[in-house]
């Protein structure tokens, strides 16, 4: 019966009608039904937002169908599952992405047109789901898309489908079983909204759930209690003693809010070109019924209710600093809340169909996305030993087989440490377990490395400093079978610096999976015209699932027809961006200028300040040149965007400086269209979708050795944007992919040494503009301190800021101090000269539009490796040991 088709099976059960249809008139009926019955508006009168809501619900229905089928299939096949634990997800908007992955975008657009609505206009109504800070969080979202999409051959077994359909009819659906489930927190307040007032950043809360969220499904029956505080007691067990954790009670008095409920909110994530639709399960904290019954009984009803509400604060706010969470009790609570709920869910699912925990590693892989969910290690030990009564060694053996850990940073301040006092009060049993793990591990270590106390103390999970702390990264490394970096260079840094001692001990544990981003979001959704152009010239849409096919564009890179169409697409995208800039800031920009973009979180190491000082230099040059020479200047629109952590004063000053410089330049009649500077406020995923396709040049200019990977560069590259970059993070691999073409020697020789306008010499076919100190040079340069040579132009532009040329002299003083007099940790002064040269080379290249277009095409053509599909495939094969499980429906 294996040859029977899906249609045959559907007919057999009369199910053809069960699946929702996607022709325009069925879609129209669905949308109008949702207007009337879900949004509760009259179908004769509803606005764009209501239309969006109805549309979203109609799409959601289709997602749910696929999701049911996927869950049933997974349940039946019971494959090994990967559970991706991440405290942050930056999903952005869901509508366009969903309909494109479902393959019904055009049908919806047609259906809406007849109803008098534009799909794009309705898509704009959706707010961003910003449950994360930056790269790490967006990476998680890209990886979700790839996890759902990965296209493996289906095994068609009709008997199995038959059985599934029966169970489907009998039981409707079992929702919570999936191969690829990602867990996160459903923060009520996402990443703050950035408002710029007088050039300063102000933060406003992002209550993103204000208008409801049609993309999630609250699973009121999927709830788990999460407990905190209490004591650990010895209990008689099987003739011996065992530890029991008695949460809540400390010194015989009850701690308030020691128990909360975690409620699941499921977000279906559809794959592209497959029926598979996986789950992003987010946990929200709700008050537990067991809280404070005493107060009720003693008549203090109001206080008891008010106190209960405080339980919800656990999942209410995302920490807006993407580097440092040290010593914050609420942060630790969030982490444990997340870990405990996820593990209860995972273990319950495992126990549904397995009785022996020795099978656990064959069925479960747990991915720690950075150190944030590392408490999961102690929690698994606690559940296995204390609740499932496995002996310690057996539990430890299981733990060592299931965890893998990915580090996303090289910055020491981002390596989390949890003060022992805090852990002891909040999770006393977990602290004991971590101590026990550490004890065994240090004993083992002594056998391996001898009594080298310095090294032992460096490698210990417990740090005996002024504040005794648990080093979460050490815990993660000791207990994981694989430690991944996010680019080759990053992995080298982990091995040779950050985790050197561990690498020497366990070289086999260390590996890397260079990050990637999803082309579905970053080309197909955000740049539909480029997407259509690529498909046309490749003669296939298959690249949407297989990015290596983009290499086929290389052969066409000199084709004049392609050039023309390519330039047209780029121009339309620039016009769209120019309109946005004008609407948002009132600044008119010319689309014939080069759009030069730097969008990312504001950080000293990312060097937005270098960019701004470069712009000041450009401005200064224009001001000081003969009027007649100005015709030689390549016009630029410099665009900067990004949020600064609310407590990061220096980063906020950089934003203010950017706006102060913009104010001066944009209003200077000497400059006109030759130079504009725009700060784009409230940079988020949706803004990126608009800005990236419109960029000619993008900057990734971190001090070498500081950016673990960087993923923005990949998005720009895919969209045919040229990169101006340092050799840092994944840029090193981008250079290898798109080819150096003698560029280094050529453009450095060709560029002028003083002023960008005077670039002379022959510019050869460079595809990137590279500059700056190399990673291995950085430490020695820093050593030089105040004796490090910096170019005169650098001193001059800093002086302009110091002297108040842009106003706010006192306010910018500390910023200037940071880059002069031996304080220039990020080497802005040292790199300034070569930065200007790279900029000059970009100007020169831009003048030759044919060459530029060719380089742009080659950038897109060379971007295949930076798809998250490739990253996920590597993780699946090398780290998680999972197989594809394609839904046959
Ligand atoms: C990081 C790093 C980025 C990296 C991203 C995803 O700073 O370099 O690309 O994770 O791995 N903490 C981050 O956002």
UniProtKB/TrEMBL annotation:
It is an enzyme of class 2 (transferase). Its cofactor is pyridoxal 5'-phosphate. It catalyses: [(1->4)-alpha-D-glucosyl](n) + phosphate = [(1->4)-alpha-D-glucosyl](n-1) + alpha-D-glucose 1-phosphate. GO terms for molecular function: glycogen phosphorylase activity; pyridoxal phosphate binding. Keywords: Allosteric enzyme, Carbohydrate metabolism, Glycosyltransferase, Pyridoxal phosphate, Transferase. One of its GO terms (biological process) is glycogen catabolic process. Its EC number is 2.4.1.1. GO terms for cellular component: cytoplasm. Belongs to the glycogen phosphorylase family. Allosteric enzyme that catalyzes the rate-limiting step in glycogen catabolism, the phosphorolytic cleavage of glycogen to produce glucose-1-phosphate, and plays a central role in maintaining cellular and organismal glucose homeostasis. This is Alpha-1,4 glucan phosphorylase. It comes from Populus tomentosa. The chain holds residues 187 to 1075 of 1075 of the full protein.
